Amino acid sequence: MNDLHRLAAEVALVLALLAVGWSALALARGRPLSQLAIANLAWVALIAIVAALLGLVVLATGSGPHDALHLVYAALAIVALPLTAWVAAGRAARQRTVAGFVGSLVELILVVRLFQTGG
Fold first, then answer.
1. Which residues contact 7 (CB under 8 A, 6 or more apart)?
2. Model confidence at 105: pLDDT above 90
């Protein structure tokens, strides 16, 4: 189960890197996030949830993270992108693009910290 948890985390990391690059490019070009970029953000959030659920299974079997902050970062990683979507809803396209960039950057930082504090 630990291997599946790590694999999900690695997928989240790759998708978060892609999301940061995609949203930065959209921001630099002055364009709104494409539907594909938004779908990628949804996948990052979904994979983060899957990784967290797998992490709970790993935790329940007695193998915890090296640092208790791992659990804090996991909780933040789960809420970061849904919170970003909530903040961006109903805003102008440029503001949604900025929110997507900031949210994906925060998510990336959290995922990197999860690797640093995990097992």
1. none
2. yes
SS3 for 64? coil
Q: Residue-wise over 57-66: b if at least 16 C-beta within 10 A, else e?
A: ebbeeeeebe
Cα 16 to its chain centre, rounded Å, is 6
One-letter amino acid for residue 108 of the chain? L
User: Residue 40 has which token pair?
Assistant: 């990628």
The length of the chain, given as a count of residues: 119
Distance CA 11, CA 62 (A): 24
What are the tokens at 71? 């659990």
Domain residue ranges in the chain: 2-117
Q: Taking residues 41-49, what's their average pLDDT? A: 97
CA distance 11 to 81: 16
Q: Is the model's pTM score more than 0.90?
A: yes
23 sits in which H/E element:
helix 2-29
Sign of CA dihedral 31, 36, 42, 44: negative
Max CA separation in the chain (angstroms): 49
